[in-house]
Amino acid sequence: MKVALIVDNPYRDLPSLVLLATSLCQKGVTCFLVPHNLRQLEIWRLVPDLVLLNYLRRNLHALYQDMAAAGIKLGVLDTEGGVIESLDKYGESLIEDQALRDYVSFYCCWGPKLAHHIVQAAWFSDQQVVVTGSPRTDFYAQPWQKVALQQSSYVAPYAKNLVLVNGNFSLGNPGFLSREEQYKLLVNLGHDPETAHQWQQNEVEGLKQLTALTNRLACHFPEATFVYRPHPFESLDTYKELLDPLENLHCLRVGTVDGWILQSKAVIQRSCSTSIEAGMVEIPALSPDWIPTAFSRPAAEKTSVQCNTEEDLVQQLELILKGEFQRSPQMQQQLQEVVEDWFYRVDGQAHKRVADVLLKHIPVTGERERQRACRNFIYGLGKSGVRRRTL
Asked: What is the pTM of this model?
């Protein structure tokens, strides 16, 4: 039994997929961790029985068709299925091909709210959709929280009064495409061109304002250490001229965010899932809500301390650093509801639930046919596939 797990971004997804792969290997499955940017060639070389996709979006429709034509089973564990701007917007990027949707063996949802909507909207059937939680949140529960701390020794030089500032501007500051290419991708995914342009403009302005705010906060709180962590899909070069060269301010993108959150005193973000992740481990998340963003994510807003002005944010941060901050009962209730709705359970067992789903759908026959089909795609003999003459 061979399974390929698509790794969207190593800074965000690799540890949780290693956790999943370990669970599968213990059940006798051979697992391959396939980088997202190498997926189209590596899949044909590996000849997996099943591929766990990181999403099912329109931009990869042709590849999904080819894998289905090769007899490879498809499952989905969406890497961004927990905090979204709206359920309808989430659906806009999904492939429109209903026959291909029907071919998908299972769709693992982080939480029941999205799962319910997926079925009600007839995107997938009740038999396909399974609520598992996200393996990424397993590192906020024991015993994996201990492992996350052990593996995040890179935080140690910055851990004294650490304030983590999370950038979330991958549309306006893309790391792997030019801004123009990112715009075209958004349009190709089905988004309105004018709206896509406005998203990018908002993020460019938001990035400038958040970095300027971070500079001022680092000056105001010399006793604290500020680490600005750009989103895994952002360009680092943009920040070189925007962040001041201060002793207590650092721009770093090392390791996964759980290691940073677990050792922070506070998290500053703007409509980002890290506000919820921080709440899972009782770390206060502050939101400078005057800073523009591409779109507001209601779940993230509910779990953040909403700061209307910079003075308000400074006051909240002072309380946190003094150890005097207290989350209101209303915010505590909202956090609990958001976690239950969008993340199901934070119990360290999500990777096992996903593994159990995978094990039910790995085919035990048809290997020879898959080998023949994958060979054809390697040599450019398939329906579309990769046009290559040699391995």
From this structure: 0.90
